[in-house]
Amino acid sequence: MISSxxxxxxxxxxxxxxxxxxDRISTISxxxxxxxxxxTNKKIYLFPNxxxxxxxxxxxxxxxxxxxxxxxAHLPVILYSGAIGEKQGLENVLLVAEKFKQEQKAAQFxxxxxxxxxxxxxxxxxxxxxxxxxFLPLQPEEKLNEFLNMADVHLIIQKxxxxxxxxxxxxxxxxxxxxxxAVTAEAGSALYNTVVNNNLGLVCLPxxxxxxKKCIEKALATNDNTLQINARSYAEKHLCLDKIMQQYITxxxxxxxxxxxxxxxxxx
Length: 268
What we know:
There is one protein chain. It contains twelve helices and eight strands. It is an alpha/beta fold. Strand 3, helix 4 and strand 4 (108-112) form a beta-alpha-beta unit.
């Protein structure tokens, strides 16, 4: 996004200084770790974005939840929940919703969250008169588990060229509720590898409206809950807050004198 070579040069020098001076370096995805490893010989610790598996958990009957949020219980819900910026490429969700409307396929598309691109998306949706898409504000924490469970399909949308060094934190909570996720990600990216290698959801190419539409339709048509079961299991095994914090203590703080104090603090 930055085009100034002079500014980029300054930022890279700052980055190099930080990496040289750091005692420990950690990151949230294998893709970022691989990139960092080309810049330093120091060990890079991997601590993925965690989720609270006790707070976010599957709820079987989402029909009741749809009614509670003022939606039509008999129609499927396709949900994007998170930051609304240009890097997500969310205009493609509008185009898919438009195609659903043209083909008279009943569904409720929801874009929930806030960000600098939200108003522009709302204006675009109004311009093409989409009545099957709803924009919602950020949901209160106490309702977030029910809100995520309400969706029949969750969307993680990113533009091409962005996903290589990005691991969306929303994936953790989606997995924790056992959500069925449709992802746009380039092959070989950290997000792609995580979803495909662990069979967590459906993946299609970024910035391809036709493929995204097919991906959503396939998700809505499936009667097999294998992906949802895999997602919840992955969250419990790899993204659980307690396990990641214990790993953090063991791998990063084990050589410091403050370990016992930190462990005591966590127990409390």
